[in-house]
Amino acid sequence: MRKVIMLNRVSIDGFFAGPNGEIEWFVHDAEVDKAAHEMADADTVLFGRKTYQMFEGYWPKVAGDPNAPPEARVIANELNEMTKVVFSKTLKAATWENSKLATSNLAEEVKRLKQGSGADMLIFGSGTIVQQLTAGGFIDEYLFIVTPVVLGAGKSLFKGVQKLNLGHVEARHFNSGNVLLHYKTTSS
Q1: What is the set of domains in the chain, with CATH numbers?
Q2: Which of 42, 104, 115, 116 is in Cβ range 3.0-4.6 Å of 122 for a Cys bridge?
Q3: Residue environment code for 106-134, b if the CB has 16+ CB neighbours within 10 A, otherwise e
Q4: Cβ distance 11 to 27 under 8 Å?
Q5: What percent of the chain has pLDDT over 90?
Q6: At CA 99, angle to CA 104 and CA 183, rounded to 5?
Q7: Cβ pair 183, 35 in contact under 8 A
Q8: How far apart are CA 188 and CA 181, in angstroms?
Q9: How far apart (Å, rounded) are the C-alpha atoms in residues 81 and 2?
């Protein structure tokens, strides 16, 4: 069965975005990106509408930009090739290559995808999707890139989610100050 792996950057005080969705506080580090990539063998990305639109507005341009850093172009090309499933009731179309719009029940669709063939699935950002899938027990592993920033206020990744015990898999620290934490659900 395919796994669902959540990958998110969080501030030290536990926010995945600022109060208005700001993410400029991320401390980018190619070594962290590489390590996170090695921990997740995925061919599909699950998105909520907002995160999908943010990624779609940025990554396809990076893939074709000869001035972009080589490691960013690699990520961009991988994202272009991956299947992207966008969960939205308001988006009319998902136009980024290899994208599919899912307007049906989130839990039912993810259950169907998990039972299908292919590599694992990743969730980037998409806080409401993470909250719903965590509450429903659909996320198998959690990768947190803890960024050395205190936001003081912002969007909580697990708003409304009941207690969930996780098993420690791995922790890595980087010169940038980022820490990569890898957990799995205790039932996985």
Answers
A1: 4-185 (3.40.430.10)
A2: 42
A3: beebbeebeeeeeebbbbbbbbbbbbbbb
A4: no
A5: 73
A6: 80
A7: no
A8: 17
A9: 18
Tell me the C-alpha distance between 115 and 97, whole Å: 23
Tokens of 119: 């590599």
How many whole angstroms separate alpha carbon 28 and alpha carbon 69? 12
Q: Give the separation between CA 80 and CA 78, rounded to whole angstroms.
A: 5
Q: Which pLDDT band holds residue 140 (cuts at 50, 70, 90)?
A: very high
On the question of pLDDT at 175 being above 90, the answer is: yes
Query: Among 168, 178, 136, 153, which residue's Cα sits nearest to residue 16?
Result: 153
Q: Which helix (H) or strand (E) holds 165?
A: none
187 pLDDT band (50/70/90 cuts)?
A: low
Q: What are phi and psi of 3, to 5 degrees?
A: -100, 155
* Per-residue 3-state assignment (H helix, E strand, C coil) for 71-136: HHHHHHHHHHHCEEEEECCCCCCCCCCCEEEECCCHHHHHHHHHHCCCCEEEEECCHHHHHHHHHC
pLDDT greater than 90 at residue 3: yes
